[in-house]
Amino acid sequence: MKILIVDDDPATLLVTSIALQHAGGYEILLANSGTDALESARENRPDAILMDIVMHDLDGLSVLANLRNQEETGSIPVIFHTARTTPSEIRTLLSSGAKGVIGKPTDPMELSNEIQRILAQRN
Question: What span, in angstroms and rounded, lies between the C-alpha atoms of 15 and 70?
Answer without folding.
Answer: 30
